[in-house]
Specification:
The protein has helices at residues 2-24, 63-68; strands at 28-33, 48-53. By secondary structure, it is α+β, with helices and mostly antiparallel strands.
Length: 76
């Protein structure tokens, strides 16, 4: 069922987070899905992005909303 698939995806997210915590020790994460044609996937399929984030990054703390609000992404 759809509920089982969502549950399995979040269980996998928890497993990936534990591995990244041990391997890279990030200070945070961005987690996201690309859904639908305008969401970005070239081939329609489900996948989850898990991006470790670090304080020393030049754009630390800006998250995905920062990039979506930039001028090149605004409606004309």
């Amino acid at each position: 069922s759809h509920v089982d698939e969502v549950s399995a995806a979040f269980q996998l997210l928890a497993e990936v987070k534990r591995w990244m915590d041990v391997t890279y020790q990030p200070q945070g994460y961005n987690v996201g899905w690309n859904c639908g044609a305008v969401g970005g996937p070239d081939v329609m399929h489900a996948h989850m992005h898990v991006i470790p984030r670090f304080e020393q990054e030049p754009y630390a703390g800006r998250g995905i909303r920062y990039w979506l609000k930039q001028e090149p992404n605004r409606w004309r």
